[in-house]
Amino acid sequence: MCGRYSLGKSKKELEERFQAEMLTEFNPRYNIAPTQLLPVITSQSPKGFSFFYWGITPDFGKNKPVAQKLINAKAETVDQKISFKTSFKTRRCIIPADGFYEWKRLGKKTKIPYRFTMEDNRLFSFAGIWEEYETVNGEVQHTFLILTTSPNPTVAQVHDRMPVIFDQTQEKKWLDNYTSPEELKGLLQPYPQDKMVSFTVSPSVNSVQNDYASLTKKASPADQHGNYTLFG
C-alpha cells in the first residue's frame, strides 16, 4: 500500500525534471494524502502537468473505508481486473514524488512512521492509472491510483507492499501509447533497494493537517502517539 507521499520541490524543479509545463502555481508538499488535488502527467498529455484527485474526490473521501480501497491498484492484476484494464491500456500516468511514508507495526497498537526516498533526494515518479467521470452536477472530474507491487528488501522491513517507482527511461515507456502491454507489465517491478534509503520520521506525519518540511527529516523512532521506542 502507498497511502502518503511527499513532493517537496518547486514548480521550476518539477518542470525541469519532467520536461513538462505547469500552468498553475505549486507549493512544495510534504505530507500528501488521498482525496487531494495533485500533479500528474498522463500518456494523453505527456508535455504538461494535469491536476487530478488521488483516489477519490473530497466529498466521497468522507467515507474512509471506501476511500482507503480506491487509492492503490495491484500491478500484478491491473491488466486483468475489469475496473482497471481499460485504464491500463489507455489512461496511464506518472505521479511525481520525492519520497513516501509507511508505518511499521510493532504489536497491536504501536506503529512507527518511516520515510523512503532516493539516496540524493532526487525526484522520481510512481506508476499510475487515471479515470474520468461526470458528477451528478455535470462536472467532469479526474482521479488517479498509484500502482503497488511486492516490496524490495528495504521496504519489506516495514510493509508488505510498495509503490511502483520509475526512473526517466521507464517513465517514457509507460507514457508511450505504442508500448506493448507485455512491455508495460514488465516495467511494474520493485525498485532496486540499493538506490533507496529509509529512516524513521516524526509521528507528526500521522496527521494530514501537518504539512511542513521537517516532517521529511530523520527523527528518533516514536510510535503514533509520540512515545519513543528502542525499535527502528
Descriptive overview:
With 232 residues, this protein is an alpha+beta fold. The chain has a single domain (5-102, 121-193), classed as hypothetical protein yedk fold. Helices cover 19% and strands 32% of the residues. The protein has helices at residues 11-18, 58-61, 64-69, 85-90, 153-156, 168-175, 181-187, and strands at 5-7, 29-32, 37-42, 50-54, 72-74, 92-97, 99-106, 110-118, 124-134, 140-149, 162-163, 165-166, 196-200. Strands 2-1-7-8-13 form a five-stranded antiparallel beta sheet, with no helix packed on it. Strands 3-4-10-9-6 form a five-stranded mixed β-barrel. The two termini are 20 Å apart.
Describe the structure concisely.
With 232 residues, this protein is α+β, with helices and mostly antiparallel strands. It has helices at 11-18, 58-61, 64-69, 85-90, 153-156, 168-175, 181-187; strands spanning 5-7, 29-32, 37-42, 50-54, 72-74, 92-97, 99-106, 110-118, 124-134, 140-149, 162-163, 165-166, 196-200.
